[in-house]
């Protein structure tokens, strides 16, 4: 027994020591580790680390508590990388050995983190010592994250993004948890490419979402940026890449253009809009399904998809409208729209601004759209867009009735082919190409009007609305410019118009011929339409100046010819019409009729010299001979002859075919 006693004493002492160590480890708060841990982390991170208190309870799920943890900024100074009032966590002890480290619960309270990335993409969170190649450690898994006033300030110079995000855990009894559906609330604000925004988000299972990309969690987001408001509710997967989304989306604002650059869609300016849709994303493909809402006063419905691809993203849109207000499409061709200041003080093509700009540039009183097309946007993506409108409201008495347009944009070249309007009971068909690879933009247009009804071309004109007959037009134009006004000011091409058959107001014809006797008779009695034999017009356009080559309107009573110039550079008109009556009349002060002035304010007048000569002769005869003799110069003998309609129509054969449909 005496031989074994030293061994037993040693074993007992060893076991006692082990028990004492285990007891110490079990009951100790490990506060003494604060200093060594500060030095270890400081070396590892390459920046000062401090904490006012450190406590740990060694258990199968070890509890760790840290107070006033601070991790300093990088060598360039600035705020602390991390500053936490309190951090508490529960770490599964065996996972420290087996890897990855499993953190059952992580609670952050009263914390701030200042993260930044420079223009080269280097983040201030980078470790001082990189891990040896091939020895990457598994990322710790956080099973549950609890936040209380935890804020992240993120400044990304590469993305031109600044954002502040504050997170708080939502308790189950809180109504905003939506019966436990949401567990974390975030409030955020910032600016992206100088555009300010703010909003809030709710989600559940945030850490699972980050670490398990094959899972989705419920998500609710609302964002405000100036007048733009967005609401999103549904499911999201992989919160870092955002490559899995299925949610109901509501978006509204003063103009679609303000969505860029928040959404990578270089959309044109528009009137105020409000749209609902189902938003889906799968990898690089975004889809808006069941679009329903309004743009301006126009209803919109359809589907859209947007694919992120190289070298340019692809937009595919199919929309329908029961009633389209044409003014809502105005921004597509550079027309001003009535819009307001957004909350950021950004103006968006208001009419007042446009008028001031026109006055400043000498374009006051001009009517052609002069807002620039965006070369950047036309080169930013490819697109296929189809729009069908069953009815068009023009706000003015124009003859457009419906619309169907197909747009293709490839490598900066936009083709509208075809564009079809229901027009005055007929159709207006066209193909238009804008080549934005050139500056200024190169444009080419072919336009054909088929079987347009004269009466419906001028629905508010009482004289013309009583007329009948069909009109055809054929036009080809080319030009260079970054707005509609600039394109037409440089355009070259030709235009032909033809009309055969039908009837036209005789009162209108006599008024053009200043035949007071005939006009008075039709006015006192009843306007009797006169058969229209033909109407033929051709123009040649060179560098924005359209000069008539042929201008004839022939009825059974009167033949009217003339010439004129429409100058698209300064938007002025100068036309002369000469009537040649075929019937006799008294009180005919026949004189050439002039239409001059601007596109916006044309001014009709008569030839003062011819009218004065005829009136002077009448006055002289009345004084010298007899008052009845004064009527002699005003008597129209009716020497006008029929125009060669057959020969004239051959000169505008494409337009004639468009009028007759054959």
From TrEMBL:
Annotated spans, Disordered: 119-138
Keyword match Cell division: no
GO cellular component, one term: plasma membrane
InterPro entries hit by this protein: AsmA, AsmA-related
Alphabetized UniProt keyword annotations: Membrane, Transmembrane, Transmembrane helix
Domain (AsmA): residue spans on this chain: 4-547
Pfam families: AsmA (PF05170)
Coiled coil (residue ranges): none
Species assigned in the record: Pigmentiphaga aceris
Signal peptide limits: none
Transmembrane regions listed in the UniProt entry: 7-27
A biological process from GO: regulation of protein targeting to membrane
The keyword rRNA-binding belongs to this UniProt entry's keyword annotation: no
Protein's recorded name: AsmA family protein
């Amino acid at each position: 027994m005496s031989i074994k006693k030293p061994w037993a004493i040693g074993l007992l002492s060893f076991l006692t020591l082990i028990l004492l160590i285990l007891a110490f480890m079990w009951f100790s708060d490990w506060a003494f580790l604060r200093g060594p841990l500060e030095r270890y982390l400081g070396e590892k991170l390459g920046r000062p680390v401090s904490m006012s208190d450190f406590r740990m309870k060694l258990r199968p799920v070890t509890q760790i508590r840290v107070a006033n943890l601070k991790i300093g900024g990088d060598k360039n100074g600035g705020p602390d990388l991390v500053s936490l009032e309190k951090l508490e966590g529960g770490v599964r002890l065996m996972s420290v050995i087996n890897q990855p480290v499993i953190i059952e619960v992580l609670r952050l309270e009263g914390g701030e983190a200042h993260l930044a990335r420079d223009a080269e993409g280097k983040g201030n969170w980078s470790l001082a010592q990189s891990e040896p190649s091939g020895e990457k450690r598994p990322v710790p898994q956080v099973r549950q994250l609890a936040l209380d006033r935890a804020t992240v300030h993120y400044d990304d110079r590469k993305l031109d993004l600044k954002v502040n995000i504050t997170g708080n855990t939502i308790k189950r009894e809180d109504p905003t948890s939506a019966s436990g559906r949401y567990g974390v609330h975030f409030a955020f604000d910032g600016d992206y490419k100088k555009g300010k925004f703010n909003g809030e988000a709710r989600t559940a299972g945030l850490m699972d979402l980050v670490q398990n990309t094959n899972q989705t969690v419920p998500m609710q987001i609302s964002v405000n940026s100036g007048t733009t408001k967005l609401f999103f509710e549904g499911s999201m997967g992989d919160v870092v890449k955002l490559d899995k989304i299925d949610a109901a989306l509501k978006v509204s604002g003063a103009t679609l253009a303000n969505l860029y650059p928040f959404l990578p869609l270089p959309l044109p300016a528009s009137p105020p809009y409000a749209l609902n849709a189902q938003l889906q994303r799968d990898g690089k493909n975004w889809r808006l399904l069941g679009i329903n809402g309004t743009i301006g006063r126009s209803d919109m419905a359809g589907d859209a998809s947007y694919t992120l691809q190289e070298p340019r993203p692809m937009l595919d849109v199919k929309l329908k409208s029961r009633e389209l207000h044409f003014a809502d499409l105005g921004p597509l061709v550079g027309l001003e729209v009535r819009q307001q200041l957004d909350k950021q003080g950004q103006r968006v093509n208001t009419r007042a601004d446009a008028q001031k700009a026109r006055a400043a540039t000498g374009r006051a009183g001009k009517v052609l759209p002069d807002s620039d097309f965006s070369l950047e946007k036309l080169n930013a993506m490819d697109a296929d867009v189809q729009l069908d409108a069953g009815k068009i409201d023009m706000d003015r008495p124009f003859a457009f009735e419906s619309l169907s347009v197909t747009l293709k944009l490839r490598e900066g070249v936009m083709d509208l082919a075809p564009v079809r309007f229901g027009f005055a009971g007929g159709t207006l068909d066209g193909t238009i190409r804008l080549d934005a690879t050139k500056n200024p933009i190169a444009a080419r247009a072919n336009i054909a009007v088929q079987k347009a009804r004269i009466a419906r071309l001028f629905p508010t004109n009482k004289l013309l609305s009583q007329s009948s007959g069909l009109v055809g037009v054929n036009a080809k134009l080319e030009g260079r410019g970054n707005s509609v006004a600039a394109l037409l000011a440089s355009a070259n091409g030709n235009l032909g118009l033809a009309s055969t058959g039908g009837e036209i107001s005789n009162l209108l014809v006599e008024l053009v011929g200043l035949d007071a006797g005939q006009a008075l008779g039709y006015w006192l009695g009843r306007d009797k339409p006169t058969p229209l034999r033909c109407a033929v017009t051709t123009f040649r356009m060179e560098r924005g100046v359209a000069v008539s080559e042929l201008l004839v309107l022939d009825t059974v009573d009167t033949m009217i010819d003339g010439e004129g110039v429409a100058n698209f550079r300064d938007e002025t008109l100068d036309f002369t019409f000469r009537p040649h009556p075929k019937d006799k009349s008294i009180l005919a002060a026949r004189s050439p009729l002039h239409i001059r002035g601007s596109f916006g304010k044309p001014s009709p007048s008569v030839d003062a010299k011819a009218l004065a000569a005829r009136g002077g002769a009448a006055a002289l005869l009345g004084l010298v001979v007899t008052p009845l003799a004064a009527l002699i110069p005003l008597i129209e003998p009716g020497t006008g002859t029929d125009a060669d309609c057959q020969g004239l129509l051959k000169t505008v054969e494409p337009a004639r075919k468009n009028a007759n449909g054959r």
